[in-house]
Amino acid sequence: MINGEGRVHTLRAAGVSLVVDLGGVVPRVLHWGADLGPVDGDLAAALRRTSVPAVLNNSPDVPRAFSAWPTEQDGWAGTPAQTGSRAGTASTPRPRLADGEVEESPDGGGRISIVLGDAIAATRAHLEYRMDPAGVVSVDMSVENPSDAASVYVLEGLRALMPVPERASELLDFTGKWCRERSPQRMPFAFGTHARRARRGKPGHDSPFLLAAGTPGFGFAHGELWGVHLAWSGDGEYLAERLPEGAGALSRVLGAGELLRSGEVMLQPGERYDAPTVLFTWSDRGLDGLAARSHRRLRARAHHPAAPRPLVLNTWEAVYFDHDLERLIEIADRAAEVGVERIVLDDGWFRGRRDADAGLGDWLVDEDVWPDGLGPFVDAVRGRGMQFGLWFEPEMISPDSDLAREHPEWVLAPREGAGPTARNQQVLDLANREAYELVLERISALVAEHDIDYLKWDHNRDLVEPVAGRDGGDRPLVHDQTLALYRMLDELRARHPRLEIETCSGGGGRVDLGILERTDRVWASDCNDPVERARIERWTRLLVPPELIGSHLGARRSHTTSRETDLSFRLAISLTAHAGIETDLTTATPDDLRTITAWAALYRELRGLIHTGDIVNADLADDAAMLTGIVAPDGGRALYTWARLATSPEGQSGRVRFPGLDAGARYRVRVRPELGGASRHEVSDPAWMCAAADGGAELPGAVLAVAGVPLPTLNPQQALLFDVERLP
Does the keyword Ion transport apply (predicted)? Predict the structure, then answer.
């Protein structure tokens, strides 16, 4: 039991402190941010003493608090942690600390577990703060309707909320659309509530992705930031809130939680709702500092991919629905020649699937297209030394399918009838056990039959009117549908331990750390246009490390934007992630094949660095240029991509600093020539570049990292790779 005066507890790791006061009626967060060092009695008492704000005019007669489970009983007029009622009553929860437990980890961090009783709501709640060795704070919450309760408790919302200080005066989050995901938007942290809500049955292409509050003018390499991410693949909400009276002794609030639809969670006596995990990350090293903590956290997982990430070829933009064994084997021949290590057969292999109009849900090989089944192609791929992967879209159903004709009640839709299709498909009710079992067994059978190495798991539409018949009426099921998805992924991986799964949702419509607990990479976008891709992946890397982001070489003329780009630029942009190919290699010229082969060898050489290093970004005044680097954990080697996306008023870059290098070291800088030349908008390169292009230029770290060096003025849609090695 933890209660009483003086019960201040601290979790510390990687330069971060979370200080929680368990001495009051409801616990409070006294500090979240820079490490305060060991919190002894004097420091704890000082934090508690300074946590009490003034009593303002025209306010409650006691100081306003902001508790770990904020409600109106604290004088908090903002968004509460918990909303719900019992048939319209018991709508003002008054949580009280009932029990708790603190456990410190020898590797840094630990957990603080809190139990809250509530006489008014008649519920029992659990709140757990956990800090990992990377300094990331995860918050898990649950609400239980006790087994002896007299009625149903309708939960309307449960949100993890954390206070942040007044200096966090700017906000950053993201919006987007198909093929332009994770487009940043910045704004002042103004009074009121900045709320972002996803009602798409998934995070969506316009997902907030990460909501960060920071000191004025924060950038990639500078500024103090507090960020929040909802690790959940269904509906969600993010909020940043600022009231005139503040939030206790602090000024503002960040939070997130699942966005529950009306009547979605009705807790019968004895039932419990477990909220999705919410992750809070602090950095005093700008956005790159947030990324570093997130990447360290993900890379420390026991199931994080450990083997080198194989070079992939996906057949979609090469053949689309035109599946022909001879043509596909010819593509496999070219793939093996250039160094591909895995081929993924995309959409179009199953019964009736000659276009996007039919077949989803049946998951049976089309005998007309594949009279001998998939075996001959799988054997051809494996015979050429490559792994085999297959595309599925298990959460969807085509109206023109045997499954829809046999079980129209399995469509996730009101009983009055389904609304309009999207991409000629509806959503399959995976919360229906029979539908779930059928899809699971058909996928599992194919994986077992062909010993499939890899699944591309797609999800091409929003969930609109996501209700189905339950308990005599239409009940919202986004929550149950998301949990069913998680169960299916977990079951497939349990049955097939070597199986890898890529998550795709019309490209980047479901990129979150909930789905990444069960998958091995994300497809960041359906857009293989390198100009768009460079921006999309730059921001995706705020949470997701490069080895978990698929990035493919597309055709010269982009399938999604019709923009034409040089091969060298497309290769450069797709190199620094989990690289792949999504173009028809049988149409490539001999010169292009040689360049692609050299690029594949370069990827194999550098992926040990790319997939373990720290991401760094230069803060440039010119938005049309990017300098992005990956620095080895020991600092001994780094790879930088200097890219120009468009023209800009400046004719010269000026001195550009290479972030992440040691000012006290000395380095050799080489321009990697494997991808071919980059077109310049200049007569000649800066003088120092001559040596960099001819064996390597030796420069002090103080020049590279502090003073900076002038870089070539590239033409739009061009890029150079700098390979930087620390000298003894």
Answer: no
Establish whether 526 is a catalytic residue. yes
- Together in a domain, 605 and 622: no
Tokens for 703, please give them: 């020049």
CA distance 429 to 388: 29
Q: What is the CATH number of the domain that holds 368?
A: 3.20.20.70
Identify which of 179, 221, 350 has the alpha carbon closest to the alpha carbon of residue 619: 221
Residue 471's pLDDT is 86
Burial, 225: exposed, middle or buried (Cβ in 10 Å; 0-12, 13-18, 19+)? buried
For residue 237, give the 3-state DSSP assignment: strand
Pair 21, 112 in one domain: yes
The contacts of residue 335 (CB under 8 Å, 6+ apart) are: 313, 343, 384, 386, 581, 585
Residue 641 has pLDDT above 60, yes or no: yes
DSSP-derived letter for residue 293 is H
Boundary (domain end) residue, out of 587, 609, 631: 609
Same domain, 589 and 447: yes
Which domain-ending residue is among 557, 580, 609?
609
Find where tokens 């409650």 sit. Answer: 60
Residues 339, 381: one domain? yes
Report which of 229, 83, 254, 79 is spatially closest to residue 165, judged by C-alpha positions. Answer: 254
| Amino acid sitting at position 513 | L
Query: Is 56 part of any domain?
Result: no
Q: Are residues 160 and 226 in the same domain?
A: yes
Residue 468 maps to a domain: no
- pLDDT tens per residue, range 455-476: 999 999 999 999 999 988 999 9
What are the structure tokens assigned to 636, written together?
Answer: 């001994």
Q: What CATH number has the domain bearing residue 638? A: 2.60.40.1180
- The range of the structural domain enclosing residue 657 comes to 618-726
d(CA 656, CA 659): 9
Domains: count for the chain:
3
Q: How far is CA 362 from the centre of its chain?
A: 30
Length of the chain: 728
C-alpha dihedral sign at 522, 526, 531, 536: negative
In this structure, are 333 and 273 located in the same domain? no
Q: Which residues pair with 467 in a beta bridge?
A: 476
As a dihedral over the C-alpha atoms of residue 677, residue 682, residue 688, residue 692, rounded to 10 degrees, the angle is: 0
Domain-embedded: residue 539: yes
Task: Identify whether residues 270 and 289 lie together within a single domain.
Answer: yes
User: Is pLDDT larger for residue 24 or for residue 466?
Assistant: 466
Count CB neighbours of 375 within 10 A: 12
Asked if residues 25 and 35 have their Cβ atoms less than 8 Å apart, the reply is no
Identify whether 403 is part of a domain.
Answer: no
Per the annotation, the verdict on 284 as an active-site residue is: no
Mean pLDDT of 180-193: 98
Q: Tokens 């990827």 — which residue?
A: 603
**Element housing 439 (H / E):** helix 433-450
Mean pLDDT of 347-373: 97
Catalytic site residue from 235, 346, 458, 566: 458
Task: Give the residue from 189, 277, 288, 162 showing the smallest Cα distance to 229.
Answer: 277
For the stretch 501-528, pLDDT in tens is 999 999 999 999 999 999 999 999 999 9
Locus of tokens 């607990």: 517
